[in-house]
Amino acid sequence: MAFMLIQTHDPVSLREALPDFTRVTHIFLPVNDNSNPAVPGGGSHWSLLVVSVVDGVAFHYDSLHPANKDEAISTTKKLGILLNKELRFLDLPDSPRQENGYDCGVFVCMEMKHLLLKKLLMAHSQEKIDMSMGGKTVDAARARKDMFRVMEGFRKEGEQRRS
Q1: Is 104 tagged catalytic?
Q2: Which of 33, 45, 103, 109 is catalytic?
Q3: Inter-residue contact 100 to 68 (CB < 8 Å)
Q4: pLDDT (tens digit, 9 = 90+) per residue, 33-63?
Q5: Catalytic annotation on 9?
């Protein structure tokens, strides 16, 4: 979705292709730095943009800060047009840092999991939520194993349904 938003000149034209966001409180968007739509699977880095629709704030988490900042800003602006709502961009430089050039996707998945399960779903409806990831670390090797275990469970479940 972020890629479609970045590539279009008229974000409103995407409304029919996207979910209805009228009853949504938060939108999680993995952001990629691929600037060429002719190159499938292009780009070399992923970051996470979490938009609090109710607060009008877009939080950007980048494990190679500030590698995807421009893409995240562009996505925020276009999403604001799509939602017909002014969104304030907040870059969070205290996001957990990756130590290599290939774990960005794992970091995005683990950040999404932490923000959803430990922050958003644990808060009361009127409570302001601290969206900082400061002090949070990501054990990428363990996260990969956890993700594999989850996918393996889905694979086995699918096999059981087909048999």
Answers
A1: yes
A2: 45
A3: no
A4: 998 878 877 889 999 999 999 999 999 999 9
A5: no
Q: Phi and psi of 63, rounded to 5°?
A: -75, -10
Among residues 33, 60, 103, 104, the one annotated as catalytic is: 104
pTM of the model: 0.89
- What is the distance in angstroms between the CA of the first residue and the CA of the last residue of the chain? 35
User: Is 62 labeled as catalytic in the residue annotation?
Assistant: yes
Mean pLDDT, all residues of the chain: 92
Largest CA distance in the chain: 50
d(CA 65, CA 91): 9
Q: Which long-range contacts (CB under 8 A, 24 or more apart) does 29-35 make?
A: 29/1, 29/2, 29/75, 29/79, 30/2, 30/105, 30/108, 30/112, 31/2, 31/60, 31/68, 31/71, 31/72, 31/75, 32/2, 32/3, 32/68, 32/71, 33/67, 33/68, 33/71, 34/3, 35/6
Q: Please, are residues 137 and 96 in contact by the beta-carbon 8 Å criterion?
A: yes
Choice among 33, 62, 103, 109 that is catalytic: 62
